[in-house]
Amino acid sequence: MEVRKVELFLLEMRLREEFRTSVEALISRPVVLVRVEERGGEEGWGELVSDWGPWYSYETYEVDLLIMRRFLIPQLLGARLESPEDFHTLSSKVRGYPMAKAALEEALLSLYSRLKGRPLAELLGGRREEIDSGVSIGLKPTVEELLREVSRRLEEGYQRIKIKIEPGLDVELVRAIRSQFGGIKLQVDANGSYTMAHFPTLKKLDEYDLLMVEQPLAYDDLIQHAVLSRKLSTPVCLDESIRSAQDVVLASTLGAAEVINVKPARVGGVLRAKEVLETSKALGLGAWVGGMLESGVGRAFLVALASHPAVTFPNDISASSRYWEEDIVEPPWELTSRGTIRVPREPGLGVEVKEEALKRYHEGEVVRGAVSLASGLR
Ligand code: OSB
Ligand code: MG
C-alpha cells in the first residue's frame, strides 16, 4: 500500500437537535473527512471527530489539522505499508493526538479493506451480522422534554437509552424515566462532572437498576473511580479515562471499572480499539462501542467494531437520522425493526460518500470563529 494523495475536507455539519452535556452544548460539529488514494487509484475514507474546543478531550479539530498536515501526513506520503498496522509504527514518534491518528488510520483501513476485498468487520474480528443500537440523549431544558425524547427513541426501536447527567440534573431525571417507562435498559453518563463530594447523590442512583454509570468522576482520576466503584452496586463504566488497552489493565487492577466504553477516536484508531475490546474481554470486563456523533463515514468503523464478540452491551451507535437531516453517505445508516444496525458485508465503508452532499456542507454557513469553514481545504 503506497499512499500518493491525502485530501482533507473540512465540513460543518449541523445537528438536527442541540446535544448538551455537562461540558458543552453542541449545535453543529466540525467534521474533517480524510480521503487517501493509493497508487492504483483505489481510495479510503476516515473521519476526524475532534471538537471546536478542548472539552471532551484536549484535541480540537484545528490543532489536529495542524498535527496531520505538519507531521502525520508527510510521514505517510511515500511510505510503503504492508497493512494499516504499519501506520501505528510510523506515527509512534508523534506523542498523543489519538483522534488525528485515528482519522488517518481509518482512511488506511478502509483502503486496505477495498484492496483486499475483505469487509471491515472481518478485518476487525467481527462476527455479528447486526449490532445492537442504543441512543445517547443530551440534557434537556425540562424533564417533560426529556421524557418526550425518551418516548420517541423507544418508539423508533432503540434497545437502550443513555441520558446525560450533571450535578443537580440526575436522580430526578432517572426517577421520572423509570416511573414512566418501567424496566427499559437505562444508563447515565456524567462526562466526569461529579466528585466524591457528590457521593450521596451517586449512591441514590443505585435504587434505579441502571445498566451502568459512565465516567462519573474526572477523566484523570482512576483512583477515585476505584473508591467509588467499591461503594456502588451500579457498575461503573469508563469513557474519557481509557486511552489504551494498558489503561484497561490499570483500571481493572485498581477495580476502577466494570465496563469500558470503547471509542476508536479516543484510543488512536480502530485497530487500537479492537485491542481495548479484547483486553476488556480477557479481564472479564463488559464493553460496548461509544460514539462521538460521527457522520456516516466514522459510523462505518463503529458498526464494524461493534460486531466484535467482546461487545457485551448495546452501543451508542444510532441511525443517521438521529443526528442529521441529511447524512453524507448513501445509503444512510438505518435502524432495523429489531433495534439493530446491519453490518455491511461489502469491503470499504460499506456505504458511498455522497460527493454532492459533501459540497453542500462545505458551503455551509460559518457559525464560529476565525477559520473560514466555507472555503474548504482540498
Ligand atoms: O461521552 O459518550 C460521550 C458524544 C460526544 C462526545 C462524548 C460523548 C458523546 C455521546 C454521543 O454520548 C454518542 C453518539 O451518539 O455518538
Ligand atoms: Mg461518555
Automatic annotation (TrEMBL):
Alphabetical list of CDD domains matching this protein: NAAAR
Annotated EC: 4.2.1.113
Domain Mandelate racemase/muconate lactonizing enzyme C-terminal: 143-235
Keyword set includes Lyase: yes
Gene3D superfamilies: Enolase-like C-terminal domain, Enolase-like, N-terminal domain
SMART domains on file: MR_MLE
Upper classification of the organism: Archaea, Thermoproteota, Thermoprotei, Thermofilales, Thermofilaceae
Species of origin: Thermofilum pendens
GO molecular function: metal ion binding; O-succinylbenzoate synthase activity; racemase and epimerase activity
Protein keywords: Lyase, Magnesium, Metal-binding
Class of this enzyme: lyase
InterPro entries noted in UniProt: Enolase-like_C_sf, Enolase-like_N, Enolase_C-like, Mandelate_racemase_C, Mandelate_racemase_N_dom, OSBS/NAAAR
Required cofactor names: a divalent metal cation
Protein name: o-succinylbenzoate synthase
Coiled-coil residues: none
GO process terms (BP): menaquinone biosynthetic process
NCBIfam families: menC_lowGC_arch
